[in-house]
Description:
By secondary structure, the protein is α/β, with parallel strands linked by helices. The chain is built from 7 helices and 13 strands. It is 27% helix and 26% strand.
Amino acid sequence: xxxxxxxxxxxxxxxxxxxxxxxxxxxxxxxxxxxxxxxxxxxxxxxxxxxxxxxxxxxxxxxxxxxxxxxxxxxxxxxxxxxxxxxxxxxxxxxxxxxxxxxxxxxxxxxxxxxxxxxxxxxxxxxxxxxxxxxxxxxxxxxxxxxxxxxxxxxxxxxxxxxxxxxxxxxxxxxxxxxxxxxxxxxxxxxxxxxxxxxxxxxxxxxxxxxxxxxxxxxxxxxxxxxxxxxxxxxxxxxxxxxxxxxxxxxxxxxxxxxxxxxxxxxxxxxxxxxxxxxxxxxxxxxxxxxxxxxxxxxxxxx
Length: 303
């Protein structure tokens, strides 16, 4: 059974200030998402499911259906604020959906095979999809999931601090936990001894260059959905009146490790690209152009 790729594309892109999921970065107007789908197809994935906003549906479909017709089967899932909230009164001040784990939960009923989860606006690289495909076709089980780990130094921005989930890994290569670090940046970037630091109330702390970090590329068995739903109900019980509370995938991953099984951390050599700030866009375009020039991708992905 071929695995499915679930793409989280319902984000509001608040920091970036536009619908970056559909901005063209490739030489023929390809979005970052197009490259992920292209890499997934050549790795062997059998279907793509998009999680999108309902009010963005027509615009989204008009872009991607012509491109992907005949390339890979696609499906859509809508992330609505009311999904899986039966019995709870949603406060009027709550405007945004419930986070990434809730977005995954919305695909329950659409996905019945092992699947990977990625963000729409992150460039993950060919190696990451090949490793995810191998895991999802040879190792995944109801008690064994995976996360693709990126070298922290390959995930920073030149235009500001970033927040990253730094993975704690045991001796067997399994995830122990994810420490959410905010205000991470490269210090002394132009010197011989640069270092990665993050800031907290008590000052600056150094992080090893080769730390594995989560860029929200996960591999799951389809039996994960009832577990996520159970956790989401508890999340609502605890947080229904907090308008900013979000149900993130790492919260679900942490509960899975404690209650049900292991999550394998699979290191990738891929360079991650992302558009956290508007100023990152030219860097991403230049990086993709370089990959095209080196022959890693065709000039027109879907020609």
